[in-house]
Amino acid sequence: MEFINNIDYFDQHFLIDKKVLNDFIDACELSIDDEIVEIGPGKGIITELLAKKGKHVTCIELDLNLEHFINVLKDKYKNIDVLYGNALNLYIPPCDKIISALPYSITEPFIEKLLRCEFKESILIVGKRFADNVCNKSLTKLSLLTNSFFNVERIRDIEPNCFDPAPRVMSSIIKLKPVNREELKYSFKRFIFREMFYNRERKLKNNIMEALIEFSKLHGKRLTKRESKEIIKSYNIPEITLNKQMENLSNEEYELIFETLK
Ligand code: SAH
After folding, report:
1. Ligand 1: centre distance to CA 253 (Å)
2. Each residue of 3-52: pLDDT tens digit?
C-alpha cells in the first residue's frame, strides 16, 4: 500500500519507447558544449544520452530509491552530478538546457520557476492538455504566463503506452525558448502580461500602470503615472478586479484583461 502511494507521490512514468526517446533527444539538439540540467532522471534512460552528447549533466531527483540507477551511470560517465531533492525548492544553476520528462503534478509551479532561471532552451515532456492549452494560446493564466516568457514549439505527442507505468493521459514533447523584454517591443499584450507576471505582488492597477510605463520607455517615450492611470480607466476593468493581485485573478478575469488591453 505504502509502495503504491509512493509511486503516486513521485509521479513516476518511465519512458520505454525507443522512437520517442530518439525524437526527444533530437529535439534537444545537443552539442558537446552543452551544460545540461535534467529534472527527474529516474532510471536514467534520457540521462545516459545527455551525458554522451553534452558537456555536463546536473540531475535533480526527488526519489532516493533510484540512487542505484544513477550511480551506475555516474561510474560509466564522469560528467554527471546528482542533487537529491525537490526540483521546485532547489536552485537550478545557469545552463544551456533544462531537460525533463516532467512529473505532471509539478507542471505549473515548475513553469513559474523557469521564469527565474537562466537557460537557452528547455525541452520537456508534459501532459498533452498543457501542451494544447499553451500552443493554442488559450487565455488561461498558465497559457498566458508561458507564452509571455517563452516561444513555445510543439514537437510531437506521445501515447500513454510509451511509458511504464502508462499515465492516464496523452503526453507531448514541447520546447520553450525564453524571449527577452526587448523582443516583445512589438507584442504589446505579451509585453504587458510579462511585466505583470514578473511583478505579481503588486495590485493589478499598479501592475498595469507600471507595465504601460515600461512599454512606453521601450519605445523611447515617457508616460506619466497620471497618463497611465487614464489609459487604465478607459479599459473599464471592474474596480474589484483592479484591486486584486495576479495570483487571485480568475481565468475569466485573465481573459477580460487580455481582451481589453490596447
Ligand atoms: N526521466 C525518467 C523519469 C521520468 S518520471 C524517464 O523518462 O524515464 C519523473 C521523474 O521525476 C521520476 O524519476 C521522479 O522520481 C522524479 N520527480 C518527481 N517529482 C520530482 C520533484 N519534485 N523534483 C525532482 N524530481 C522529481
Report:
1. 34
2. 444 445 689 999 999 999 999 999 999 999 999 999 999 999 999 999 99
- What are the respective helix, strand and coil percentages of the chain, to the nearest 5? 50, 20, 30
Gyration radius of the chain's alpha carbons:
21
pLDDT in tens, 200-259: 899 999 999 999 999 999 999 999 999 999 999 999 999 999 999 998 999 999 999 999
Going by C-alpha positions, the residue among 58, 60, 50 that lies closest to residue 27 is: 50
Residues near 76 by beta carbon (within 8 Å), at least 6 away in sequence? 48
DSSP 126: E
The Cα–Cα gap between 204 and 160 comes to 40
The answer, yes or no, to whether any atom of ligand 1 lies below 6 A from the CB of 101, is: yes
| Cβ–Cβ under 8 Å, residues 23 and 156 | yes
- Contact predicate 140/123, CB 8 Å: no
Chain centroid to CA 76: 31
- Residue bearing the CA closest to ligand 1, atom 3: 42
The ligand 1 atom nearest the CA atom of 125: 7
